[in-house]
Amino acid sequence: MTIYKLSEDGISISEVVKINVPNAVYNRGLEGVAYGRDTLYIVNQASPTRLFKYSLLSKTISYIDVSFATYLSDVCFDETDNTLWIVDSKRGNIIHCDRNANVLHTQSISFIAKAEGLAIDRQKKIAWVGCDSSSKLYKVKLKN
Questions:
Q1: Structure pTM?
Q2: I need a surface site. Which of 37, 88, 107, 132 has the fewest CB within 10 A?
Q3: Which domain covers residue 33, as residue numbers?
Q4: pLDDT tens digits, residue range 31-44?
Q5: Cβ neighbours of residue 25 under 8 Å, at least 6 residues apart?
């Protein structure tokens, strides 16, 4: 439940922040992290599904319990409009939301058995989704 930073030379790591999740369930912890404009966005997988926001400037953390998903697998910060994209691998969705977890759009990716990794290319309207069960990388055309 700790976020670390790898040094630029790739030799050492340093602790950035420890995340406390009361009543956390074993092996359902922190699953995705994204950097955006001096904030780390961190998702807790399940029990609870939660979006943490850690300010690198003030060193403060806040969180939002997420009701639109059941199993958060990754989060990606979108610099084009300062929004977030989140993968729910249980429901098979990519959720586009604002930084306060208000849903803007949901897109099904139910054809991916266990979506885990996510990268967004808004210019090309593509989501790159890694599948944990097949070890494949999927190219998904974004609908929004």
A1: 0.90
A2: 37
A3: 2-6+28-141
A4: 888 999 899 999 99
A5: 46, 47
